[in-house]
Structures are given as structure tokens and as C-alpha cells.
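Quick start: read one record
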Amino acid sequence: MKIKFGASLLSWITPQWTPEAGKYAIEKTAEAGFDLIEILLPTSMQFDTQTVKKQLDDNCLEAVCSINLPKEKHIAFYPEEATRLIKEAINKTSELETDFLGGVLHGGLGAFSGEPLKESEINVITDVWSEISDYAATKGVNIGIEPINRYESYVCNTAKNVLDLIERTGKNNLFLHLDTFHMNIEENNFYDPVILAGNKLKHVHMTDSHRGMLGEGTVNWQEFFQALKDIDFEGNLVLENFSSSVPGMQSMVSLWQTSPYNESDLALGSLEFMKKHLS
């Protein structure tokens, strides 16, 4: 396996990008001993890539990017607006000289039609994915698409949902981006989706059922790590767990319970947990 361990910037700051907060998250990620940071790009695209690139270099840290489509960029309803935003995110990813953009790229967070996904919507989504795939290829960027739970989207809730739509496009730079929190809600187990994906799995958000310390919730980590070994996983394992010790985090991510760990202890303990299970 060829694995890079990362932390989401949400390990350290709320999902509201500012240059000062971003610098802090980069420094904290490097200090904790991670290989890379996942930068959740702001949908405003107010993001100075040259400054961030220097901060990454100064801290000897790699980066990948992600973006989550907002309601007003829901692909099935607003394909042109969604396409423009994703292309802007691809540009920012390329300018950072990294090759991966992940996130919720199948539909707007919290956008619902009130019905299951329709064939007409599938056609719109696959057309948009095909266009952004071709554009990303010109920039040397791979795209990872993250299925999320039924309470946040009706488009892609499972690994198979994403993989089936990728197959419709016929594009080879579209990949699966899993999240163990959402898997815990939507998948039958933690082994089969990873095996189904095989080398189409390139990026994982590592978080337990309560978004706390890895190993202290209900995620079946034994199944999950065994599956990674069985596919000889090559990609990124990125923490996306949250601590209420981060100012403003509780309201931003509905983290209403007080966390037993501060953000540093949570990150360090979770990194140790991952390395132990993959040693």
C-alpha cells in the first residue's frame, strides 16, 4: 500500500476560510506529523493560491483540495452554475500544484427534490461530470466524488451510487472519495464498498460514528482496514473529525455535545490509531 496520512483543515478551524485561519491549520497539521492537509475551498473562491503554496512549502506539507457544492449549485437543477464552480475549484487545485480535488460533487448539500434520483437527473449529472473530467485532465487533476448520507443528499448515498455514475461517463480521472461517517449510515458494512471500488478508491475521510476519536465509536475499523489491505490501497486517509474546543465549530457542524478531547489530542490520537492498524 502507498498511503499518505492527512488532516482536514476542519480538524483545526471552522469551514469558513480566512487567510489567517488557513495558515494556522497548515501549521498545526505539519506540527502534528501529517503528510498533507485537505483544504476545503471556499465556494466564494476567495483563495490566494500563491500565498497558501508558500505556507505549505514553508511547513514541508503537501495538500489536496475539496469542495462541497452548495444548494444553489445543485447539479440536477443548476448544471451550468455547478460546472463553473467546479472548474474554478480545479483551477485552484492546479495552481497549488496538487493533483486531487474531492468532495460532494454530485449535488448541493441539503438540496432535495422530494423524490428519488430520476434518470433525467442522472443524465444531467453525467454530462457535467464528463465536462469537468475533460477540463481537469488538461490541468492534471483527478476528481474524487464523495457519497454522503440521506439526510444531506438524495443523489449519491453509497459507493455504488458514485461508481455507477462514473462508469456512465467512461472517464478515467474520476474516482471514489469515501467517508466512514456516511458509510456508517448508508452501507451494509465497511468491507464490501472498498472491495467494490478497488483502484477507483483514492481518498477517504476517516471519522468515527460520533465524529470523535477514531476507535471510540461504532465504525467497524477492523473490516475497513482489512479491505484497504485487500485492495492494496493507494491514496489518502484524511481525518475529518471535529472538536468542540475549536471556536464556532459546534454550530457550524451541529456538534452539540462537548468533545472529551481538544483538537490537538483528537488529531494526534487518531493519527496514531490509523498508523497502528496499518503497520
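The radius of gyration is 17 Å.
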